[in-house]
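Quick check before the chapter quiz. The format below is the same one you will see on the exam, so make sure you can read both the input and the output lines.
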Amino acid sequence: MCYTLPRMIWLIALSCAADPDTMHLRLDPDGASTPTGRLVGWNLGRGSLYALPDDPLHPAWRTEARTRALAEMGALSGPGDARPILRFSGLQIDGVMGADGYHWETWAAPDRAPDPSDNLSAAQLMALMAEADAEPRITVNFGSGTAAEAADYVVHLTGTDPSDPRVAARQAWGAAAPLEVSTFEVGNEVYGWWNTGNSASGDFSYANPAAANGGDPAWHGRPASDPGDFAARALAYVEAVAAVHPDARLRLPLSQADFAGWGDTATALDALAPALAHPAVDAVVVHHYQIDDALALGVEDRDAPALVMAGTALFAPRYAALRDALDALPEPPGVAVTEYGVAGFFSRGQFDLGDTAAVGLGCADLMIAYAQWGIEEALLHMALAPDDVDAGEVLLEAWYPPHKVVDGQLVEMPSFTVTRLFADHLLARTLPVEALDVPEAEGEGYTYPLLHAAGFTDGAGAATLVVLHRGLDAPATLALALPRGWAVDGAVLWAPSDWDAPENPPIQDLDWRAARWGAELTLPPHSVAALSLVSR
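Here is the expected output.
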């Protein structure tokens, strides 16, 4: 291997200065970089209910805890002070196990009788988005809806003509201004057997001629279990939405992170190619639930610390293969992870760490990986239910809400605290981090380095580094090598005393020791650190 002179000098200095047990990372803020994706965002799951001030139907949905939680979410930002992203989707949109999905007209009339099963109206959703200062993402109902209904929904949300009954229905709630949304997702997990549209036998499946609402006659007998039929119908959705919203960008579901949607990635992309070729389609969608998807790949221990805080090592080759396959297309789409979490729906009642610090450590592992992999957008699955987290409702698991009310006080959960730490250190471009002398450990079918890190730069004299220490038992001495002219300017730490305890410590300052080659610091076991760097 041939080294340049500056790199040789750095290697010699570091080898002379460091203890043999020290782990070494090298970051070059002046080196090659790539744009940082939108990595601060949330997927609004079922159980997330909110109301306008003086709401005519559900004033109880507007609580002080939910209002404060939204304000705290809105205070987070991405690179360049980008607003957080908030997606309204999930199983509630498309329908699950044959059940009906979301139909905007059902919730549009403010004078209807309230019902305990009610979902958010567009105006209530818009209030939620506004108070979280969020950039919206909307998923249209594929499983039990139609392309025409999707286009009507887009007009309902974004139209400006008060003489249009679809617009008037929104304005009747007091939402005069349109929702500023341009990104739409065509269905939710439609490749999965659990999705209503995946089968032609569900009571509300569009492909069922005997569906309670008549289904979608043009597509009877052609469920989304066939990727070719999905792609053809998805293209009709894309064209219908683009016709009423010329600036719309649309995304197509691809798979869970096991990449077994419609059999395998190659089969799925081949079938989706005609729809992906439409100029309005800009990304494929992956949903990543670390534990659930690892179980689908044959991993057995869902509570193993390696899986929780290092499981991305199992998925990294699969994401790389997806990117290679997409890059082979004439107009490569991006990759949007519009739902992610440490555990998901299929872990209900089985994941024993849902209220522990492990969830924060797992979120750090995922966010660092998404930065490394060049993911265009990543949204943490959540439930806006801080005052109802223990209600036991399906899809309202203990690890979903980013806040919880404890003794009458709104408190952050580990997922939110770690997201905030990450958000505070995101910059416009992502830098590779070089690891030397970082030991590896064994997971179930994969190996992983004990340090997992991502670097960022603004290209104008500032850089950051976020590091997850995956070791459980001993602290790690970290030697960070930097080019001449760069220095550490500050560091913070999130360090639970026990990785698997119900604990969420505050973010605190972290000491470091300057060295001629960079800096040295000590990371407690199972901790997340973030360093700020400056060019002098």
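If your answer matched, good. The chain has 14 helices and 24 strands.
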